[in-house]
Amino acid sequence: MENENITEAGTAFPKKKIGIAIVIAILAIYIIGAIFFHNRYLPGTKIGDKKIGGKTAAQVESILSDDAKNYNLTLTGRNHFKDHIQGKDIDLTITLGDNLKDGLEKQNSLLWFLGASGDTKNLTADVSYDAAKFQKAVNALSCFDKKNIIAPENATIVANDKGKFVIKEEIYGTTVKKKVLTQKIQECLANVDTELSLKSEKCYKDPTLLKDDKRLEDGIEQANKLVDVTITYDFDYTTEKVDKTLIKDWIKFDKDCNASLSYKKVLSYIEDLAKKYDTYSTIRTVKDASGGKHKVYFGSYGWKISQTKEAKKLMKVIKAGKDVTREPIYMYKAVCRKKGNIDWDDTYVCVNISSQSMVFIKDGKAVLSSAIVTGDPTKGHSTPTGAYQVMYKQRNATLVGQGYSSPVSYFMPFTTNVGFHDATWRSSFGGSSYRGNGSHGCVNMPAGNAAALYQILEKGTPVFVYE
User: Fold this and answer.
1) Per-residue confidence band for 11, with pLDDT thresholds at 50, 70 and 90
2) For residues 338 and 331, what is the distance between their CA atoms, to the nearest angstrom?
3) What is d(CA 386, CA 302) in angstroms, rounded to the nearest whole number?
4) 304 in helix, strand or coil?
5) Are strands 394-401 and 386-389 parallel, antiparallel or unpaired?
6) Architecture of domain 348-466 in this structure
7) DSSP characters for 30-53?
8) Are residues 460 and 414 in contact, defined by beta-carbon separation less than 8 angstroms?
9) How far apart are the C-alpha atoms of 404 and 228, rounded to whole Å?
10) Secondary structure element (H or E) that encloses residue 242, with its range
């Protein structure tokens, strides 16, 4: 029994010694660490990406001095961009500065084993450089060279060759935000960082609308509905179709990608349609009773599309989404449409001022001809030449103008205040009497002929007046 007690006591004593030795060792390490870090930066202390834990202020200052001499900031970015800002080019100097000095003073060396924390962990050096040289170096970066700049583009909606709308992906481009990049370079200099990624640091002007934005999908759906219609314009001898091949170019999108029709583009189409099919006040070649051809210039007869009204109407028809055949809204109409923009048929009146004669051709045959007296050109009352249309017919009218009032039995105007009528006060017609003794612009006829014309002439009949 006594031997067993001696053995247990002997075993306990060495264990106690070991425990005391460990405590002493730990205490020694702690004291050594506290002494060591009394004038050194604690573990984990950094200047930017540079670790300075365990170094004295003098050692850090020496490192910073070497860094300033050899400093090179590498900038990388899109399209394989790579460039540099070198310390020697901007007269860079790096010293401890107040932040590093204060950081050393504020740290608690007694807690060295916990490492740096709070505002003593990430410190900055005192960096200075020549401002003018710095700006010059920034301006000289190749990312600001025009040939290297690609503007960013938002994702957009475009029409493909089949008239369907699809998303065109965004382009990120290489346009740099100079103010942001300048600030980031200054931060790198302050932290003595040697690498700067323009992409990571968001130095680029990026698109604001990306391909996965739901607004784009909604806009495509709206646009595809608008183009899914066919409108056929009927011009009697031919037709014009408005379908997706045209409509796709008329669609515009607002900032939220909502699709709508461009009034300006629709109106432009109607304007082109009018140029192609309008005959109002154009030059025509007409045949008289004997087959002679005469040029008839302008006048107020012919087809004329009401362009603004038709553009608005077309937009409504497209939005309705139903296939239709229609004719445009007209401001003026002629009696027919034929190939070559012929807008008269075989029934019309010819008035030849030079021969002082008129002829009414009905269904291609001369049914009434007469000598006439037209307006007096010597007094500024010439009968207007051109193509016109019988406006109406009136019995027993009184023609009133400056210095005259003339009652007539038959009045058939074809333009404002000018028309065919009887002239019982005249004893002769034809010849050259119209020069000096002509009318105030109307076409004077013998009473019998005027009466006969009144019976067979209809409202809307084309009237061609030529020299």
Assistant:
1) low
2) 19
3) 11
4) strand
5) unpaired
6) Beta Barrel (2.40)
7) HHHHHHHGGGBPPTT-EETTEE-T
8) no
9) 63
10) strand 239-242
| Strand ranges (E), 333-445 | 348-352, 357-362, 365-371, 386-389, 394-401, 404-415, 418-422, 443-445
Model confidence over 154-175: pLDDT tens digits?
999 999 888 789 999 999 999 9
Task: Return the closest-CA partner of residue 126 out of 84, 67, 75, 201.
Answer: 67
From residue 201, how far is each of 3, 77, 183, 184, 328 by CA, in Å? 77, 10, 10, 8, 59
> Does an H or E element contain 266, and which?
helix 263-277
Q: How far apart are CA 286 and CA 346, in angstroms?
A: 10
Q: Beta strand 365-371 with 46-47: parallel, antiparallel or unpaired?
A: unpaired
**pTM metric for this prediction:** 0.72
Distance CA 389, CA 419 (A): 10
- Domain 215-285+296-332 annotated CATH 3.10.20.800: yes
What is the DSSP secondary structure assignment for residue 228, as one 8-state letter? S
Angle ∠(391,392,393) on CA atoms, nearest 5: 145
Report which of 244, 223, 267, 265 is spatially closest to residue 323, judged by C-alpha positions.
244
Burial of 386: CB neighbours in 10 Å, binned 0-12, 13-18, 19+: buried
Whole-angstrom Cα distance, residue 275 to residue 272? 5
Instruction: Determine the average pLDDT of the residues in 203-226.
Output: 96
**pLDDT tops 90 at residue 124:** no
User: How far apart, in whole angstroms, are the C-alpha atoms of residue 84 and residue 73?
Assistant: 5
**Where are the domains positioned within the chain?**
215-285+296-332, 348-466
> Is it the case that residue 2 has pLDDT exceeding 70?
no
Contact 13, 23 (CB under 8 A): no
Alpha-carbon distance of 274 to 328, in angstroms, equals 10
What are the φ/ψ torsions at residue 132 (nearest 5 degrees)?
-65, -45
Pull the structure tokens for residue 282.
């154009």
Tell me which residue has tokens 């670790």: 51
Closest CA to 296 of 281, 311, 285, 288: 285
290 three-state secondary structure:
coil
Question: Tokens 């860079």 belong to which residue?
Answer: 92
pLDDT range class, residue 32, cuts 50, 70, 90: confident
Q: Are 107 and 31 in contact (CB under 8 A)?
A: no
Residue 454 CA to residue 411 CA, distance in Å, equals 8
Nearest to 124 by CA among 197, 170, 60: 60
Contact 450, 410 (CB under 8 A): yes
